[in-house]
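Q&A log
Question type: sequence-to-structure
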Amino acid sequence: MTQRRVATPVSDTDTIYSPDTYVRGVPYDALARLRGSTPVAWVEERPVDDEPAGPGFWAVLRHADACHVLRNPKLFSPRGPADKDLGHGRGRTPVVDPPARSRLRRRLPKAFGARTVAHLSERIACRAQALVDAVAEKGEADFAAEIAAELPLLSAADLLGVPEADRWLLSDWSDRVTRRSAAGYPVGYSPEAPFDPVGCTGMARRAVAARPHGPSDTEAPGPAEETGGELPDLRLYARELAEHKRLHPGDDLMTALVQHAGGKNGPAPDEEFENLFRVFAAAANDIVRGGLSGGMLALLKNPAETARLRADRGLLDSAVEEMLRWWSPVMCLGRTAVTDTVVGNVPVRKGERLVVWLVSANRDEPVFAEPTRFDVGRAPNDHLALGLGPRACLGTHLVRMQMRAMFGAVLDRFDALEPAGEPRRLRSNVHNGIKHLPIRWRPKPAG
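Response status: OK
Response body:
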């Protein structure tokens, strides 16, 4: 075996760790240099803002090693010391672990019956078309704030059976998860619409009353008020929504979960209902928003591929997969070694943390030909943007459904796409997001 801590350029490990780096863009060059020198690199966690130094972690950089770590939760647990994912005191995105996660996976096929899926697909397509139509004649918009931010919120509300008037809560929960998963830095999206205490439901008002900070507070809750992304107001809302769905069923996933009886799974207990609600209300929302904005940026930067997609809509499915690979909305996932093991050729001790760098694995040269090139017809495309194995994103089909609907609508109404200003990125070493993406186009007639 090689030495435990392979000598790598300190500047590169510092570069990939610092959240300031990502304001300028993902450091692909630094990741490529590290990936070329060692499969797993030790990263020192230096102090950032008011966060102290951390114990350090192993950066998993290559596709094969990333697959090994993600496929083996018995060796590499998503839970870590004090439930942290990345960095000392750095918070985490919502986590549902086995066996609860396995039970949720068994329930989802029942909940996503043909009628529910058809209804949801139709609603998502209508939502995407309406958002695009609303700005089409203007000829310009902030795609990230005006379009990409809205579709996942509206779709999540449809999926979860959340009244549209309460969707501010979905935005708030996602925003707080984003901030907490990156050390509480001021990186999160700002809610695009203010909280409406008059038009919202009583459930929403009670949830806001349980929020660690008031609805006008733009700062992330501190560790004393909120630990590990648990979001007490979200859990309160989920419990009340579950009870409401038992009494007033609708055509949505949450109704299916609480109403379904019979079979070995039965209706979802409150705790499982809350866990699934937490995943779809917070984490999935942010993945879709990042995927939509990143996909649009890919089209803007690659006009020849955009023209190719316009000429052959049959490439839309593969284009969405390439957008996910090329952009990777979640840049990394944290794991903890359950026992002494080896990753690549590097020994890892029990209790040491690993961070699987998806943005690096998705550009690993032996797996992806010309990995820096955006290719709407790329096949095969074994990207890891939505995870892999037992901990893969529970809402993968919903992410893809929303991206297909949105870019289909964009191609229908927007011609001659081009940037109208510089993108403004999140300050995060976890979430690959864009806060503002000004674009312009030539409107195409509706229909």
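Response note: The chain has a mean pLDDT of 82.
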